[in-house]
Amino acid sequence: MEQIFLYDTTLRDGTQGENISFSADEKVKIAERLDGLGIHYIEGGWPGSNPKDIQFFDMARRVKFKQARLAAFGATRKPGISPEDDANLKALLGTHTPVMTIFGKSWDLHVEKVMENTLSENLAMISESVEYLKSQQKEVIYDAEHFFDGFKENHEYAYLTVSAAIKAGADTIVFCDTNGGTLPFEVENIIQEIFGRINKDSALSTDDLKPKFGIHTHNDCGLAVANSITAIQSGLTMVQGTINGYGERCGNADLTSIIPILSEKMDVPCIPRENLSQLRSLSGYVSETANLVPLKSRPFVGKSAFAHKGGIHVNAIMKTPRAYEHMRPELVGNAQRVLISDLSGKSNIEYKAAEFGLKLGGNGFDSKHIVSRIKELEQDGYQFDVADGSFKILAEKLTKQFTPLFDLESFRVTIEKDKDQPCSAHATIKISVDGNQEITAAEGYGPVSALDNALRKALDKFYPDLDMMQLVDFKVRVIDGRVGTAAKVRVLIESRDQDHLWSTIGVSEDIIEASWQALADSFQYKLAYEDKIRRTP
Questions:
Q1: Phi and psi for 456 in degrees, rounded to 5?
Q2: Choosing a second label site near 216 at 20 to 30 A (CA), which of 134, 317, 371, 406?
Q3: Rounded to whole angstroms, what are the CA distances from 135 to 78, 129, 503?
Q4: Could you state, in chain order, the average pLDDT of each consecutive group of 10 residues for the chain (537 residues)?
Q5: Host H or E run for residue 433
Q6: DSSP H helical segments within 403-492, as ranges?
Q7: Domains, the chain
């Protein structure tokens, strides 16, 4: 199969997703990452719609992209005016990008009922806009908006809109499933029918009218990736999408799935294969920039994409990963993970023990003992598949390999509330390190924050490297709310330093006690890691 061209619209269509917004600076940085991956076209925004996109294009003019061609997005001219006088087309040309992407209406419903336009004027708007942009020596991509819905209701008119763009000289025609309601077999049938008509149309068969064809799908039926792959199988050579599938309503086709499917499953050229390992990092970068929690179950790049929990599964992948993995996770920059839970077997424990460098007895007693204890604790509300740090400490304790780097003697937390002031929290803590006691106090934004600050302050005398450690997430969940305020709670703390990310857990009827368990495990995990580094020659 011939080269497939990737067209990324994260910076425009992706930002139409709920709670997604990028600054101009952030858009430039994302564009540079997309270029580094090997994306062929990057749609930067709609300069006719907002000042931020104008600012982005101004900043992007100073960026030297290695491969990607930058595209500005906009609409065809407005009814009743010439292209030269249309403000939207002027704004497009003002970006000085080599590629102009314009959309036009393919569905007569939109032309007559939404735009309150005539069918003939809509055809003229498409034709004249494409011709004008081509006269300015631009590569023109024409997005046939609502094409599949339009074709299903009035195939003759939908064909005429595409024909108008082709005759006007568009370099690429993109068939858009704008509402995301088309099914894969419909995509295939409609593309075959439209290609058949184009090939028979003598007015479109000249050598100078040989556009490429592309696909733009939305995910309202959960089929955006499937429809995109079907379109490529049907002969289209450009696929539009966004990183992580971000976009309006249910999102766009997810390029983090499409790219590895093309490259590894179909052996179709799209990006350089050596760049594929950047995919998970790029996915995380875009999520982080959008301030959205990465979807763990996202195919290929999600944290859970190659995670195994069932004991039978783990036993199999320890022998041959292919038994339960459809591809090598390293190809997309991901990694195999084994989770610990009440579904775990000995294989899970042995895998994780090897990962953490723990020694288990050769007769299997240790792993059986750990599995049994985990199942008891998970019955009480613990969840070790999301708390690797606490699992490591538990396994060390059960195998008598745990050496605490500090011991708690006591702590006291007080909350004070004045009539016209917000609550304030104070914590006093007494710990011992190698028999040396330290007592200290600190304030915080809440009781856990105060306790965290007091513990750090106390430990600083013995371990001065803790300033690089920070708590990045704190979750509290009521395990069974039927007993009201006496219910058990589960506290999950996620911590990180400059190199690592780890999670710890605590469970108790007292939220402060549960928080302390998770907090103490987090510090013990960090200090043990630092101690191991110091001891390594």
A1: -60, -45
A2: 134
A3: 18, 10, 59
A4: 93 95 93 97 92 94 94 97 96 97 97 96 98 98 98 97 97 98 98 94 78 97 98 98 98 98 96 94 90 90 90 87 94 87 74 84 77 87 86 92 95 90 92 95 93 95 87 85 76 88 92 95 92 67
A5: strand 424-433
A6: 447-459
A7: 5-271 (3.20.20.70), 307-398 (1.10.238), 407-535 (3.30.160.270)
